[in-house]
Design goal:
Number of helices: 8
Shape: globular
Oligomer: single chain
Helix content: 40-55%
Low-confidence stretches: none
Bound molecules: S-adenosylmethionine
Number of strands: 7
Structural class: alpha/beta
Length: 222
């Protein structure tokens, strides 16, 4: 099997059960026009995030890594009218593009895009006494995935889901000799998960338009 086949399957799934609507297409177009990298989740992955958020009745979602707001829109659409999604983004220009796309999708009331390096923003959230989240999606700088996971674990409700993207990294997750820091961070995440009694977790490898990668899903028992 080759990349062309993986992409064809993603297209088929996108055209049948996980279609982009006008707002999602516009979000991708605006991001491309503004020169943002095309590293958002694929439509089938966006739909998966949406279904996960809905399946646990999420009212409060935290996202690490907004980019142009594509995954943010999928996730925010799972929220009830009194829900809230907080998305953390380091780059001002990206946050601006995202806010415009999120407003155009009619989700501006539900979503806050908070600008700044996420680790710093987490400190501010502590000071604000932030309420627990129901779902966390970790998709920012990959070296910090274990840090974001550890913080999230202390700021979610029992029964919450923590999802981390890009953990397989073309298979380097399993290569102890790889000196890629992002892959090393994903190995560290897995050791953390294995030692953490509060979570049950697994990682699913994926192929598709985004190559060979995968998600980690962690259910927080409380
Ligand atoms: C893979 S992209 C996010 C894609 C987005 N979740 C989606 O699927 O539509 C990663 C994003 O994380 C942001 N980022 C990188 N380092 C960050 C940090 N330290 N704090 C917050 N955001 C960061 C990048 O600027 C980029 O927009």
């Amino acid at each position: 099997m080759d990349k062309e086949t993986f992409e064809a399957v993603d297209r088929f799934v996108g055209e049948t059960v996980a279609p982009d609507d006008e707002a999602l297409l516009a979000a991708v177009e605006s991001a491309t026009a503004a020169g943002l990298p095309e590293i958002q989740v694929s439509p089938p992955q966006g739909k998966l995030l949406h279904l996960l958020a809905r399946s646990i009745g999420s009212k409060r979602i935290l996202e690490f890594g907004t980019l142009g707001g594509y995954s943010t829109i999928w996730l925010a659409r799972a929220l009830p009218p009194d829900g809230k999604l907080l998305s953390l983004e380091a780059k001002d220009a990206y946050a601006e593009v995202a806010r415009t796309s999120i407003d155009r999708a009619g989700l501006g009331e539900l979503v806050e895009v908070r600008l700044g390096p996420a680790l710093e923003t987490l400190g501010a959230l502590e000071d604000e006494g932030v309420e627990p989240f129901d779902l966390v999606f970790i998709d920012a700088d990959k070296v910090n995935t274990p840090n974001y996971f550890t913080w999230s674990l202390d700021h979610v409700r029992p029964g919450a889901l923590i999802v981390a993207d890009n953990v397989v990294r073309g298979g380097t997750l399993a290569d102890e000799h790889s000196n890629d820091l992002s892959a090393e961070a994903q190995r560290q995440l897995h050791h953390l998960l294995a030692d953490e009694s509060r979570v049950e977790a697994t990682t699913i490898q994926t192929v598709g338009s985004k190559g060979h990668d995968g998600f980690t899903l962690a259910l927080v028992d409380g």
